[in-house]
User: What shape does this take?
Amino acid sequence: MFIHGASTFLTEPGTPPQALKEELARVSAAHFRRVNRYILLSLIGAHRCALGRSLPADTGVYLTTERGNLGETEAVLRQIFRQHSLPMPYNFINTMSNTASFYVAQGLGAAGPNLSISDRLLSFERGMELMAVDFQRGRVHSALLGGVDEANPSAAHFERTFGIPAESVRGREGSAWLWVTDEPEGAAGRILGTGAVRDAGEGAAWLKEKSVALPVLAFGLSVPQAERDAWHRASGSEEEFDYISRYGWFDSATALGISRFVQDCPGRLLLHVNRDRPGRYTLAAVETTGR
Amino acid sequence: MERKACIRGGALSCSLGTDTDAVIAAVRAGRTPVSLLPLDLAGLPYSRPYYRLPFGDDRRESDVERFFYDVLFDTVARAVANAQWSGDELRRAAFLFGSTSIDIPIYEAAYARSEENGIHYFVHASLGYGSIARVAADRFGIGGPCTTFTTACTSSANALLYGAGLIETGVVDRAVVAGYDLYNATGFYGFESLRLMAPERYRPFDADRDGIIMGEGCGVVLLERGEPAAGDFVLRGGSNRVDPFNVTTHEENGSVIASTMRLALADAGLNPGAIDAVKAHATGSDLNDRTECAGMRAVFGDRLPPVTAVKPYVGHTVGASGAIELLLVTESIRRGFLPAVPGFLREDPELGVRPLTEPLPMNGGSVMLNFFGFGGNCTSLIVSGGA
Assistant: This one.
């Protein structure tokens, strides 16, 4: 799976919808009616990734998210439970996260497989895994893989999830995408794979099977500092790509980290380490080509 | 690549009950246990039919969250017990969860009780899309990849397709695939806002069809790498595509639906003539039935195999329909018949498809199962096996 495009769109929480619409107009000539914040974020990121390119018609869209259409769902609940009315039809339809992956497909003419998927803290890694299934099975030859989430407005929820003060990261909302094909020519990088391991030693062995290069490490927010040190020791690498400090954080942060690495770090190997709540590690490895 | 994702077992919770033998006996008998639910929250003076889970206790009313997990855990537990997978086998298995509503029943109950408004409250109440699957996987010690699919009415059909894919590509040897949608006001009132719900009877493909009737349920399917045992089905292929025509409807000529079916056939290594039966999505809405039938005619021409549809037994269980309907069809065939479509009386010449009106004796073969949803999502699965 060869990476031919990478994009990142980050914005501050509370950015007015009109500003998002203007941003979308800068990267797409298409007009999208009745789209909400989440769909706008998805469209901006995906269109930036494809900017100036013509995607094959059977391109797949794999949209990963932690929370999907957050604001729209709240609007529908308000209409039913507070205003005692039927929900507005398009509010209801837009509660489904695959409306965002639909609009991405419609806007970019990407009529291949179309998935909207999630896994607590590991959504983007799961998307990489399923996209790999389709490439290996020959079901796709071109795919857009994105991670999109609105800002998480609850400091309490953040602190409960990650066990660190909410103000220790710069909360953003964002949309980060990769365009991946089976064509090595002209690629900016390559996805080496995803995997699950119990500890850093196992993780280092997993990576060695894929590449002998010394990796740059990057970590999801759920990996505590003491564990990061163990990963550095096991991999023999002191380098860290701290994309969260550099760019901020949103729920689909792995997508941010990998897409930024492809854009910022030519000719390197990335090992992204993430951890689920029971403490198991999920890895993603990407190598970039030199410029 | 050889397809070897065998369906090793499963379990159901649906309007016909939880015991698979009893559920299939009810299908054979043509039972359609529908009840009426009021739309009083929206101040509307009428009701709509709905297929409720047949539990005569007050668990749901007293604690929605507990009821939600009870149904899910009970269905997974029955499926896993039937397959007798060991703890080690479960630890290395994947869990794939397909749902349209995910945790909406839980947080809308909390929202209804609260006087708070706004997204801040919502974030507290909502668990995140992937959380239900993680809770279930942790409960049963399922330690492999854990993925939630939210592709509207194709959600658990896609979970099945990719569960088989994870097995075929060697990521895992086993997958627990769950489809689950419990009643929620968002969906019930939402479909009413779209004027898609039938007022009385479920009549997919009938000339007098007048909409869908929703239902709730959970279906859990166990997939395993290996050779099929006698009577087992193999999930031998499938396809997922998007129809970019419109977010709520498919192009009326059914072209993308047809191409999804053709790609599924190619993926399974079969031609249309090798299909012994089609399980149609058959929502009963005017346009959906037209586009689906146009797609079937384009693929099968005048050699359309017997067509069944099972929503009249359990309702349209939206994201759960993939797992539930696969089990209803394969378990019926294992018991010697392909279900009829109750409610169908009068053929619609525009559709050109006449579904089964009586159960058809059948104890094996290859079946195409079709699922279509909002967001243009189209999924076709092909299973082979039985006798």
